[in-house]
């Protein structure tokens, strides 16, 4: 055996000259034992000239052959404690061709240390140092402690050792790298030009030129594209068109599955009883789809509208917004739809919540029961108006007179005088409570009336002859109604309390695995949809905020296309993860038919080279990365562990962020 010097020359991603003499990390000398042979290593499985070649060249005195393999870029990252989200995103970026070229070169000359929007260059330096360590010879995993420390300095949300979202981290990192490497040292003020009425091509070019005047970096060169955003006022039809840059596409996961849901419809006309309806809606639909299906099922009149609420513990937890997602409705939720006349929409809502005294004595306990009742009343109404409206809503729940009499006979043991026991079935009366002495018990004092009405806090009783401000600060008045025992017997409180869950699945029922193509996700992203009530657009013609119709179109695509699959959905009450299988192209992603601006200068075809995966559920999941490294070989980067994986195994329900690079048209 003998020792010899071998020169390892690293030419990365199409540098016309080797990096010899430029960077010690790109040109290394390694002492190896044994005879030498030459070989070639191709990166990211491509054959065009922008690929990297890791070339071993030399000669052997013995003339023998060396059959070892040198694999650069196959190092793992140590998990510092719930940092798999960071490791996954970093591995995808450090295997991005253009970024490898850049950070193995003399990138420091473009550092922007004085950018007030940047990280004083520290984030870019830490990332560049980490990338070089990952591309240096050797197989020992790298501990990204310095990078994490710098990250925590500028992004406290990523400090500590909690699990985070790899896409949120990726978005912060790309933005931070851009600002640290922005070639524009002093951003000029650009006065917005009036481009209304200009051709789209001219307006888009002006927007892009203005963007580049203030933003010019390797991140912009590689990762930023442009889309056209169109807003249409639903009333005056005013159209507003802008062209905005994007760093990645966040695509929804449309569902092809239909969902069966059960809702209770409450009438407010004082005639119809509550009814339960079963409807079928698309699982990926909006509440507008649910309302449309429910309106048809209950034969909603043209002069009526539906308000849908989630009821929890006999209270309305929240009103569901028309733009809300059906996917956020859980099977064990309980939903009520209230039928209200359209001509009353200008009036505020009154929500009646039912209470009864569970035990009597010095400190009685009030217990909630039943489905809340809802009506609309003019802003300045008297207590008697509120009581009258409540009795109207309750009217369908009156028990048949025979049942009331039978209950009374069973309770008293004799029938007595039928005429004297007859109850007025349409107009409950206030019983006389003026008799008696000051020593009356609590129930004798307060339960002699049919109903008592209190404001939402329960501290102030509503007097029948006094005005009540219905709208208040929230345009909604909550009224607590205390029921007497006599009224509990008089009305069908069992029916009033009957509220089924949205869906009761059979035991051990397993939902079928959903599958959707990436192109369908893109089409869902590009389709017209109304803005949410929390995201109103100020219409310059109407001079007021409007819930405009929004439409996005792809105008300019970047060299590196990052696609975020929106698996996680959130609202103010809970989170949800979609396990939909997305069928994404590996070698041939073609956006030609989806781009609004046809430009023959650039190809609209892409190939996949990296995936950030998320396995498991919310809070307890784990991130990995799948990377195309060379000769069509895919590798799984699971923190410090790196192992080969076949291409047919990279498509899973765990795929979360996809990384594509542009390839030339054939």
List keywords for this structure.
666 residues; alpha+beta; Ubiquitin-like (UB roll); eight-stranded mixed sheet; five-stranded mixed sheet; 15 helices; 33 strands; 30% strand; disordered N terminus; Ub_carboxyl-term_hydrolase; Peptidase_C19_UCH; hydrolase; Ubiquitin carboxyl-terminal hydrolase; protease
Overview of this protein structure:
The structure is a single chain. This protein is of the alpha+beta class and 666 residues long. Among the domains are: 83-181, no CATH class; 258-398 and 449-490, Ubiquitin-like (UB roll) (Roll), CATH 3.10.20. Helices cover 21% and strands 30% of the residues. The protein has 15 helices and 33 strands. The strands form nine sheets. Strands 7, 24, 28, 29, 30, 31, 32 and 33 form an eight-stranded mixed sheet that branches. A five-stranded mixed sheet has the order 9-8-12-10-11, with helices on one face. A hairpin with a 6-residue loop joins strand 29 and strand 30 (622-630). Helix 3 (122-135) packs antiparallel against helix 4 and helix 3 (122-135) crosses helix 5. The longest helix has 15 residues, at 166-180. The radius of gyration is 34 Å and the shape is elongated. It starts with a strand and ends with a strand. The model is unreliable at 1-70 and 411-448 (pLDDT under 50). Recognizes and hydrolyzes the peptide bond at the C-terminal Gly of ubiquitin. Involved in the processing of poly-ubiquitin precursors as well as that of ubiquitinated proteins. Keywords: Hydrolase, Protease, Thiol protease, Ubl conjugation pathway.
